[in-house]
Amino acid sequence: MTTHWILGPGAIGRLLAHSLAPFAEVALIGRRGFPAQQRLMTPEGEARTQRLPSLTAGQLAVDAPEPPALLHITTKAMSAEAALESTANSLPSTTPLVLWQNGFLAQPRITQTWPGPVLCATTTEGAYLTGDDGVVHAGRGHTFVGDLNNRHGELAETLAQTLTQAGLTATAVTDIRQRLWQKLAVNAAINPLVALNGVRNGELRDDAYAGRVVAVVQEVAAIMLAEGIAPPNNGQGGASWLALVWQVIENTANNKASMLQDIEAKRPTERGAILGPLIESADRHGLACNTLQALNNEIAVLEASYSRTLNH
User: Fold this and answer.
1) Rounded to whole angstroms, how far apart are CA atoms 266 and 275?
2) Do residues 40 and 128 lie in contact, with contact meaning Cβ atoms separated by under 8 Å?
3) Are residues 154 and 226 in the same domain?
4) In sequence order, which ranges of the chain are alpha helices (DSSP H)?
5) Which domain holds residue 84?
6) Same structural domain for residues 136 and 190?
7) What's the pTM?
8) Quick one: which of 202, 190, 196, 184 has its CA closest to 252?
C-alpha cells in the first residue's frame, strides 16, 4: 500500500488521515503524540472511530520508518517550512510534498527550495477539532491539486484520483496558482471577520457583518485584477468575486473557520499568509486596502493581547 505521512495533525490533517486510512498506510506526525483511536463525525452526523498511528518529529529523528510515498504538510502557513525542516532528515530529497496551506506564503518558498516535486492543494472541505482525539467534517467541498510550475501533472492526477476514492472529491489542474489566489480572496473575506466576531461562517450573511464582507471583496477584486487573476467561474469583476464568497459562506455555514479556532485557543493566526500577500500586492500596485489593513490591525491587537496574558 502507498504510505502517506501527514505532517500537522490539525483539522484538515486528521480529516485527510481518516479519509485515506482505508485505502493507504497513514501516519500523523506532530510535535507530540496523539491517541491512536481517533473519532470522526461526518457531515451526515455519523460517528466513526479509526486507529490512526502518530509519530513525533523526535521519534522520526531517532528511528525513522520506511519513508512515505507522499508527505502532506497540513500545518498552518507560518509553520510549514519549520515543520518540513524537522522531518527533512528522515526523507529522501526526492519525496513528493503536498502543501495544504491557506494563503500564498509557504507554497512559492517551499517550491523553490525543495529538490523533489511539490504539489499544492486548495480545498473547501470544512473541518474542526473537538480535542486530541476528535474531528468534525463540517462540510463537503472540492479539492484542486497542481504545482506552481506545471511540471508534475501525472503526480497531481494520481493524487486527485486517490483523494476522490477516499471521499474527498479532487481534480488535478494546471492553474493551481490562480486557484490559490482565489482561495486567498475567499479566506480574506471570511476568516478575519468570523475570528474577530466569534461567529460561524453562515452568520456573515447577517446585516451586522454583510456590509464588511462586501467592502473586503471590493478591495480584493481590485487586487486580483492588478495581479492578473481572472474572476471565478468565467465571471466579470467584483460581482463574480462576491458571488463566490457568498457561495462558500452558504456551503460552509456551520463551519468554525481556522482563524476563529486559533483566536479561541489563543494561538497565532494565519493573518500574515492570508491578509499579508493582499496588502503587499495593494501597496505594490498603489491600490487602497483600508478594510484589509484594518482587519489585519485588529487581529494583530487581539493576538498581542492574549500573548501578553499568556506571558504573565
Assistant:
1) 19
2) no
3) no
4) 11-20, 57-62, 80-87, 106-113, 153-165, 176-197, 207-227, 237-251, 258-264, 271-285, 290-310
5) 3-174
6) no
7) 0.86
8) 202
User: How many helices (H) and strands (E) would you count in the chain?
Assistant: 11, 12
Compute the distance between CA of residue 156 and CA of residue 138 in angstroms, rounded to an integer: 26
Are 41 and 58 contained in the same domain?
yes
192 and 149 together in one domain: no
Told to judge if 266 belongs to the known catalytic residues of this protein, a careful annotator would answer no
Q: What is the CATH number of the domain that holds 246?
A: 1.10.1040.10
How confident is the chain (312 residues) per 10-residue block, as mean pLDDT? Answer: 92 97 95 94 96 91 87 95 93 96 92 97 90 93 95 98 98 95 93 96 96 97 94 88 94 86 92 94 97 97 80 48
188 and 219 belong to one structural domain: yes
Task: Give the domain-ending residue among 141, 174, 207.
Answer: 174
Fill in the amino acid letter for 74: T
Task: Give the pLDDT confidence score for residue 56 in this predicted structure.
Answer: 92
C-alpha cell at 311: 506571558
* 265 CB-near residues (< 8 Å, 6+ apart): none
* CA–CA separation, 14 and 27 (whole Å): 10
R_g over Cα of the chain: 19
Specify whether the CB–CB gap between 12 and 76 falls below 8 A: no
User: Distance of CA 76 to CAs 57, 196, 219, Å?
Assistant: 16, 19, 25
- Residue indicated by cell numbers 450573511: 205
Category of 296 on φ-ψ map: left (φ > 0), alpha (ψ -120 to 50) or beta: alpha
DSSP state, 138?
E
Helix (H, G, I), strand (E, B) or coil at 71: strand
CATH number at residue 106: 3.40.50.720
Indicate which residue of 76, 183, 256, 266 is catalytic.
183
Number of domains in the chain: 2
Last residue of a domain, one of 140, 174, 208: 174
Cα 239 from Cα 159, distance rounded (Å): 33
